[in-house]
Amino acid sequence: MLLECNKLCKYYGDKTALNNIDLQLERGKIIGLLGPNGSGKTTLIKILSGILTPSGGEVKISDKNIGIETKKIVSYLPERTYLSDWMTVQQTLNFFKDFYEDFSVETALDMLQKLDIQTSEKLRTMSKGTREKVQLILVMSRNAELYLLDEPIGGVDPAARDYILKTIISNFNENASVIISTHLISDVENILDDVIFLKYGDIVLHSAVDEIREQHGKSVDALFREVFAC
Amino acid sequence: MLRKLIKYEILADYKKYGIMGIAVIALAVLALISEKTAPPYVNGYSNFISAVFAMSSVFTIFSASILLIVLSTIRFYKSFLKDEGYLMHTLPVHTWQLIASKLIAAYIWFLFLLIISAVYVTILKGNITWITDFSEDFIDGFTGENDYLSQFMMSSLISVLLTPFSYLAHIYFSFALGNLFSKNKLTMSVVMFLAINFAERVITSVLLSAYLASVKDDMTLTAMTYSNTLLSVILSVIYLIAAERIFAKKLNLE
After folding, report:
1. Distance CA A183, CA A93 (A)
2. Phi, psi of A9, rounded to the nearest 5 degrees
3. I want to staple A103 with a disulfide (CB 3.0 to 4.6 A). Which of A67, A96, A183, B64 is the partner?
4. What is d(CA A10, CA A55) in angstroms, rounded to the nearest whole number?
5. Total domain count, chain A
6. Is A14 in the B-facing interface, judged by CB distances under 8 Å?
7. Contact at 8 Å (CB) between A18 and A8?
8. What share of chain B in percent tops pLDDT 70?
């Protein structure tokens, strides 16, 4: 098992963000983490990446508690720009190469070339969308075991979305899994193997996409609209 | 890993400190030119300029120290607790390495600013002999027969060198405590900074009063400086360890 959460909970003051979640994820899958705003998607991803401490419960990635060993095998893309703006693209490549043993400079350079991004360019001079593309390239150029992508296509144009989704599919190995949190369900639906629906910090559905289509006769997008109808 | 972290800390700030260094030296050169080219018939002009330069030397060194603390604090806040923290805290490194890299980088800049200050004074004086004079006076202080003076100079030197360490440890610990609150983390960090400062002053006063009552009169000032420095070091180490533990075990990035 790649990921195991037992009775995982997170509270912000008196507000419950995650409510005793039990979750097991296997390797070799692309999993959509879906839910409305405030459902706990980002909180779960932040706990898995190690930047948020759970209020209770247990989390293991590859049988390891969250810490320095899991950070070696988890590749995390947050929903915000986390690269220092004084850096050039080349310096971000050097940075990732310096700290992550599984980072492939060749893969990153290849993707940058395809998106026509110059390595000499400074992040400060780039548009928000281009910076997000650079971040995604860096994250997907790691040979990680678990990729955590928080809203990876939220800030980019529809043309770039296709390229990003192709990048995600083609850059993870069968030993790894990808968790994608997004609101743009119709855009990602075709690449997902499994989906998890989160509602007010509870998992209300964890199923294979094919099962949803067979059992409900609906797309994931249509089921999502039904489950989370206001 | 620590060396790599320090490298990127230096790379992040070298332009700011570089510009500051160039500006300070340029100011010194301009001041020197102004003094040398002053018309001789302007009565008292030269003395006035010398006094202004002497004051500006003190002001420059003082400003550089303040700027170091301010820039180091901003750097820590941005790269530890804001957006860049999402990258720093997901690196496969220990929390103590992250904190140590920032502290060591701050000390490298502290040394840089001391060197810049020395260059500034050298330019204003127009010669380098002040360094040898100063060094001789300093060595005389240590090796001379006046035991009181040598000890006082030594304790003062240690105190000056440890000032950035004490301030930064205090600031890091305040940020760590602020991080424990679910809301208004920055505001709570400032409140914690003030609260720690107040508590530290109370503890220091009580302990030093008790200690000084037990030492000989002629050693009181030196003993006070040493004791104050030692207490400051102990508290700073406690702050750093506590900050490391909090960030390692209770990190909650907004």
Report:
1. 29
2. -140, 155
3. A96
4. 5
5. 1
6. no
7. yes
8. 77
Confidence (pLDDT) at B127? 72
Cβ of A49 within 8 Å of Cβ of B250? The answer is no
d(CA A137, CA A152): 11
Q: Determine the pLDDT at residue B253.
A: 82
Q: Does the pLDDT at position B196 exceed 80?
A: yes
Distance CA B238, CA B140 (A): 36
- How do residues A157-215 score in pLDDT, each as one tens digit? 777 778 778 877 877 777 899 999 988 888 888 888 899 999 888 998 888 888 888 88
Give the position of tokens 């039904």.
A226
Tally of CB atoms within 10 A around A187: 17
* pLDDT tens-digit readout, A43-52: 999 999 999 9
Please, which residues 20-49 of chain A have a Cβ atom closer than 8 Å to chain B?
Answer: 46, 49
Return the domain boundaries, chain B.
Answer: 1-127, 129-254
Contact A138, A93 (CB under 8 A): yes
**Domain containing residue A218:** 3-227
Q: What are residue A178's DSSP bridge partners?
A: A30, A147
CATH number at residue A127: 3.40.50.300
Our CA-based measurement puts residue B1 at a distance from the nearest CA of chain A, in whole angstroms, of: 7
- For chain A, what is the mean pLDDT? 88
Take residue B85 and report the two structure tokens written for it. Answer: 């923290």
Q: How confident is the model at residue A70 (pLDDT cuts 50, 70, 90)?
A: very high
3-state secondary structure string across chain A: CCEEEEEEEEEECCEEEEEEEEEEECCCCEEEEECCCCCCHHHHHHHHHCCECCCEEEEEECCEECCHHHHCCEEEECCCCCCCCCCEHHHHHHHHHHHCCCECHHHHHHHHHHCCCCCCCEHHHCCHHHHHHHHHHHHHCECCCEEEEECCCCCCCHHHHHHHHHHHHHCCCCCCEEEEECCCHHHHHHHCCEEEEEECCEEEEEEEHHHHHHHHCCCHHHHHHHHCCC
Q: How far apart are CA A66 and CA B250, in angstroms?
A: 12
The CA R_g of chain B, rounded to the nearest whole Å, is 22
* Parallel/antiparallel/unpaired status of strands A177-181 and A194-199: unpaired
**Other C-beta atoms within 10 Å of B98: how many?**
23
Enumerate the residues of chain A whose CB falls inside 8 A of the CB of residue B93. 68, 99
Q: Tell me which chain A residues have a C-beta less than 8 angstroms from the C-beta of B15.
A: 86
Chain A residue with Cα closest to B10: A86
